[in-house]
Amino acid sequence: MSAYLELLDWRRRVAELFLALRERTADAATLAWFRAEKDALFRHHPQSPIPKEERPSFQGLPYWPFDADARVTAGFTPVEKEEPPNGTPEIAFSRIGTLTFTLKGASHTLPAFWIAGYAGGLFVPFKDATSGHETYGGGRYLLDTIKSADLGSNLDANTVTLDFNYAYHPSCAYDPVWVCPLAPPDSRLPIPVHAGEQSL
Asked: I need a surface site. Which of 60, 108, 113, 157 has the fewest CB within 10 A?
């Protein structure tokens, strides 16, 4: 099979997984279902970011347990003037606003980016106090809507749903053959976020 068709199928399956997720209740059972489906894709799909030689022994990704408080509603404040794209030419993105939310009893902010290029997509990477030892040093992703990794928004309230239970590593965390946009310095939370995916 063509590698392009494999990649097309991978993206379709990931998009369908997030579509099904958005139709389910945000609870521990849904998270367990999602993780099992994701692990199956990582184990069997030819475009899995897990190196091919490691897939036969792959038993699933390590995750922190479900945390109901890790799902937050973030208010979106657009930037007054959109910045020019930064990052590599292959994966450039522009800061379009700020997401403000409460997590672990404190107010936090993360930049919201828009991926440049055809179609674009909302992109929210982050680092936290686990980065580099419990999670990938380059950070994790909360949203990457170009891949349909999106948990919903409310246009009337100008809010975006963030759920750290679904925080995941970029593909380059598993295999350096992948090129990934990483969290900029201001995309850092000062606390450890023990939710979502852990390092292998």
From this structure: 157
3-22 vs 28-44: helix axis angle to the nearest 10? 170
> How many folded domains does the chain comprise?
1
- Asked if residue 142 lies in contact with residue 124, where contact means CB atoms within 8 angstroms, the answer is yes
Q: What is the pLDDT along the chain (200 residues), one digit of tens a residue?
A: 698 999 999 999 999 999 999 999 999 999 999 999 999 999 999 999 999 999 999 999 999 999 999 999 999 999 987 766 665 555 688 999 999 999 999 999 999 999 887 678 999 999 999 999 999 999 999 999 988 899 999 999 999 999 999 999 999 999 999 888 889 999 999 999 999 999 98
Is there a domain that residue 21 lies in?
A: yes
DSSP 97-144: EEEEEEETTEEEEEEEEEE-SSS--EEEEEB-TTBTTTB-TT-EEEEE
| DSSP 8-state assignment for residue 16 | H
